[in-house]
Amino acid sequence: MASSDERPGAYPARNGAENQPPGDPETMKTVMIDKGAAMMQSLKPIKQMSLHLCSFACYGHDPSRQIEVNFYVHRLNQDFLQCAVYDSNSSKTHLIGVEYIVSERLFEALSPEEQKLWHSHDYEIQTGLLVTPRVPELVAKTELQNIAKTYGKFWCTWQTDRGDKLPLGAPSLMVSPQDVNMGKIKPGLLKKRDDEYGISTESLKASRVDIMGPERKNPMADYWVHHGKGLAVDIVETEMKKLAPFP
Amino acid sequence: MEKAVHLSTKNGPKVPGEPTKTGTSMVDTAASAVQSFAPINQIHQHLCAFHFYAYDMTRQVEAHHFCGHINEDMRQCLIYDGPDANARLIGLEYIVTEKLFMTLPDDEKKLWHTHEWEVKGGFLFMPGVPEAIQRQDLEKVAKTYGKVYHFWQVDLGHQLPIGLPNIMMAVTRDGQLYPEMIKETEKQFGVSMDKERASRAYMKGPDHGIHPLANGGGKGLKLEVREVDIKPVESVPRVFV
User: Fold this and answer.
1) What is the value of pTM for the model shown?
2) Looking at residue A16, what is its pLDDT?
3) Contact B39 A61 (CB under 8 A)
């Protein structure tokens, strides 16, 4: 009934500002209630996000569709990170998904079926696609070296790149840029990002020549590269196991 | 039939891994001082509620939402399994007004759930905020619809987020949620849901009533993965990074 690789049914044409979800601007009352509440709540989990990474991702069922992604990262320990993913770094942005990042050690302990859902990070770091905005390369180096050896699992729940004004359909499994035709990021997309951040991906490559990937790159990761098959997600109807009538 | 048991998500297994090394944490400290966190700074609100799996009501999870407004009609929320610094990011939720919900294609409506009973029943609350202030916002939430995905099945004791995402649903009538789970939450946050229910009796749900297609349209929902052929590489022009 819904699939990550399908265009959803007829949906009202876009109007108003490009990329803005439909809806009225926040009322002053809403803003005040929000601010009042925020003063009384500690919001601890979200304060743990201490690193912003900008990179690119591709749709797992069609890697020729590529998007810029902004990760806000919480490192729980040396082997595990959890990230909120947005399609831009502004305050008017869309929460488009979640990515989890694990060390090589944790990844190797996963089942092969699970490993298929994960992607490697070394290529995007070595080629300068993944950047740490405002943090000088020298300062960021340790984290870049860490992350280059990791694997990620990224579910995208809002396909804003195809113009969806609201989050429609099934989540998409995303994959990372790779050193194959379809996995290379389109120059236009890259230039737009570089111009916005005032950086040069090309010149970052030079400072990253010594960054290594995993000890042994696991062939179950980046499944599409090695097997020529992408992964799409379907939502299917089934019977719900119940404790009481629903709804 | 075996009696369904609530598997508490509190005090679950720790995420495996070595403690963060100093050299690594120094990068994060530097980053958090100079980088912009504009999207995260939009998050202004913490809501606690309960979700169950869209194909299995017997599996229920306490869900801590950290929400920001995109505009008056829409919020986007990160979902954690607890309110503390070590909480696991287990999912996300989008919340829209009835106005936006009604614009969705029919098949899409099934993936969304109503908030009316969650709010009116007292099950959804804002930790730390006096009830009278909470109600000013929650009376709006009662009229909205939400779409939730969880990516980490903490109720099964998974140490890592394995498997596919799950659509989640929310309480729509009494008798669905485990009383022991509710009591645990009430105790931890010092709230009384019965008391709050009385104060929320005035609230109304969506103006046009709960849409019959919402909440799975009465069906369970599950996700499956499928292999697809990737477009032939020849059809993609050679590009170089």
Assistant:
1) 0.94
2) 40
3) no
